[in-house]
Amino acid sequence: MGQKKVSVGCVQMTCTADVESNVDKAVQGIREAASKGANIVCLQELFSTLYFCDVENYESFSHAEPVPGTTTKKMQKLAADLGVVIIASLFEKRAGGLYHNTTVVIDADGTFLGKYRKNHIPDDPGFYEKFYFAPGDTGYGVFKTQFATIGVLICWDQWYPEAARITALKGAEIIFYPTAIGWSLSQTEAVNTEQHNAWQTIQCSHAIANGVFVVAVNRTGVEGDMRFWGGSFISNPFGSILYKASHDSEEVAVQELDLSAVEFYRTHWPFLRDRRTDTYGPILNRFIDEE
Questions:
Q1: DSSP string computed for 75-128
Q2: Which of 73, 93, 137, 151 is least surrounded, with the fewest CB atoms within 10 Å of its CB?
Q3: Which domain holds residue 207?
Q4: Is residue 264 part of a domain?
Q5: What is the reported pTM?
């Protein structure tokens, strides 16, 4: 199997209340990743703002924008100038009173390849996303870029094996997860460790089960009573960590991937071959109640 190399950049950063400065920092991060050889660069979830979903506040809807819109066009120009694919997470205003948590994918020539709207919307203390976002209706997105066929899911999607499976079955070689997840400042270290380990483990499990690379890009820094845990990472198709960021520092990292590993692992561990699709009908039930 011949090698097929692609370099992936992750931009892990802190955010402030100043949208313009956040976007500028993200642009600089993309430029830095490109200077290090990145072909594809992924930003964290909702990179242009603070994570406003920690409270229910109508004023936060003012941050939303059409997709594609101003920020998308800025990223299109940047992608074309640098010759890199950009994955950018935005707060989409679809219509008055209708908003989505949306990620755009821009090819290395600046072409807008499309968008994915987050399907799984959490509603937990500190993560009141159902107040802001309607569930996605774009299906699970796979995008054929100049460098790789990629899938994009968003944060809470990362806990659902069904989402990763469908994305892989549609041809993704790499699944990207723009993310905003952290620890409450009131939690114990033991709880923090358990939560972070579960987050990394479930995504590495998606890599193994589907024979794909997984790239998770999280934010860092303290916002309100939340300490975002950073820890952005890249897993190979058998769950080995190729790169992992610190918990508390901004980082721009580039990791070379050999996409021929997808075929290698799928050939030697043929999970896709042995799927019993004829037995999986019950998965469509919310719960399987006893008769």
A1: HHHHHHHHT-EEEEEEEEEEETTEEEEEEEEE-TTS-EEEEEE-----EETTEE
A2: 137
A3: 5-273
A4: yes
A5: 0.97
